[in-house]
Structure to design on (233 residues):
């Protein structure tokens, strides 16, 4: 399958600071990228969907001004958690989907563990 | 409310035997179902999928069964191997409005433990 990387793999930050997470598709062009969040012992929850060159579509309950998503190229999407608070501590996972349509073409990154102190 | 439910948080199976992981869903709009395998601190890895127009899909040791009337699907792994020990997520997708890939709705996962 295709490869998706995330950077950093883990980050610890102080409350009130902003954190940027990068998601890259290494060997394919991801026309659509998804951002998920997973709390301990919970399922992965879709946060937002972004198509290259367009504004992201956020799921209900996800604050678009807090979780800024940029998908400026076919191989890179970024998620910025602005003014992070302890309740934002979670495991953030991105996935990319290529030009072939269909949900089984989503390839997931390894995830980023965010801890906000 | 949880649209995709995996009611067994964990399952222990002896090596060589069959592992059966179950998943129920409530949204009748779901038309595509997937199973992912996940290790700690890693992203999910796609295993197998099934369209709602089918009731069975097989790939090697993995078979997924779909019962639309019961809104239930299951993943069978046979024979189970030690390397199968991981968390298995059931996921579902509904038709998108504008084409392209669609976000997935995941269950909470079942931790499969294969005992030697």
């Amino acid at each position: 399958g295709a490869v998706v990387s995330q950077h950093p793999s883990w980050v610890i930050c102080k409350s009130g600071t902003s954190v940027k997470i990068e998601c890259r598709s290494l060997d394919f062009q991801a026309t659509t990228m998804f951002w998920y969040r997973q709390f301990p012992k919970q399922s992965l929850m879709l946060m937002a969907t972004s198509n290259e060159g367009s504004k992201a579509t956020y799921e209900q309950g996800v604050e678009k001004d807090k979780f800024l998503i940029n998908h400026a190229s076919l191989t890179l999407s970024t998620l910025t958690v602005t003014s992070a608070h302890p309740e934002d501590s979670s495991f953030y996972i991105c996935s990319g989907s290529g030009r072939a349509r269909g949900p089984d073409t989503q390839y997931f990154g390894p995830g980023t563990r965010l801890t906000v102190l | 409310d949880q649209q995709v439910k995996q009611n067994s948080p964990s399952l222990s199976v002896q090596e060589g035997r069959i592992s059966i992981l179950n998943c129920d869903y409530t949204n009748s709009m779901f038309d595509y179902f997937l199973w992912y395998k996940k290790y700690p601190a890693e992203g999910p890895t796609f295993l197998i999928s099934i369209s709602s127009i089918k009731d069975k899909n097989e790939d090697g040791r993995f078979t997924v069964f779909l019962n639309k009337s019961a809104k239930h699907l299951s993943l069978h792994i046979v024979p189970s191997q030690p390397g199968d020990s991981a968390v298995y997520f059931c996921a579902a997708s509904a038709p998108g409005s504008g084409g392209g890939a669609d976000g997935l709705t995941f269950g909470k996962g079942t931790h499969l433990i294969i005992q030697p």
Notes: Chain A has no helices and eleven strands. The mean pLDDT of chain A is 90. The two ends of chain A are 36 Å apart (CA to CA). Chain A touches chain B at residues 1, 4, 6, 9, 31-32, 34, 36, 41-46, 49, 51, 59, 91, 93, 95, 97, 101-111, 113 (CB under 8 Å).
